[in-house]
Specification:
The chain is mainly α. The chain has one domain. 76% of the residues lie in helices and 0% in strands. Helix 2 packs across helix 7, helix 3 packs antiparallel against helix 4 and helix 4 packs antiparallel against helix 6. The longest helix is centred in the middle third of the chain and has 28 residues.
């Protein structure tokens, strides 16, 4: 498949998944899921765990926070190299103002990273929830019109790789 054809396919299917302009429950759910991967939300929760959690909880939160920060640096570097504009739209003005580039999706990278790390380091009961949550966050970003499908696929692959590196690095250190 040539790049032009792939781009058209990506834009077509991304537009088909879009619900940002359609009022209703699906749009509300997509907006909630899209925001549930926000970095400020996770940073606040992890910083609270570092401040008030148990010793084990603090170590867990620090590891995850470092992995999120390292992944964010890689995502931003790629975004600055690729410079793909976000899809046109009104939803997500904060994202559009602070980060006009869409490839790869930082939310997808973070969600998949979190799913990998929580599956590897977290309580077993939480693993199925984050494994379900991560792709929903990714698809919600497309549904709300702030990313193309290829953005979230690339972000998910990056998050998977970053999670594997983080898990492997702790095995080496311990």
């Amino acid at each position: 498949m040539n790049p032009s054809r792939l781009t058209k396919w990506d834009e077509h299917w991304s537009a088909r998944l879009r619900v940002a302009d359609r009022p209703g429950g699906l749009r509300t759910l997509a907006a909630f899921l899209a925001h549930s991967g926000d970095s400020w939300f996770w940073a606040a929760g992890l910083l609270a765990t570092i401040a008030w959690g148990s010793a084990d909880g603090r170590v867990w939160a620090i590891r995850i926070l470092v992995a999120i920060a390292a992944t964010a640096v890689v995502v931003m570097a790629i975004k600055l190299l690729v410079r793909r504009r976000r899809p046109a739209g009104d939803w997500g003005s904060i994202y559009r103002m602070t980060d006009p580039h869409s490839f790869p999706s930082g939310h997808a990278a973070r969600a998949v990273l979190l799913a990998v790390l929580i599956t590897g380091w977290g309580p077993p009961w939480l693993a199925p929830l984050v494994i379900l949550w991560a792709p929903l966050v990714s698809l919600a970003r497309v549904a709300m019109g702030v990313h193309y499908l290829s953005d979230v696929v690339a972000g998910a692959v990056l998050g998977l790789a970053a999670g594997a590196v983080a898990l492997a690095s702790t095995r080496l250190v311990l």
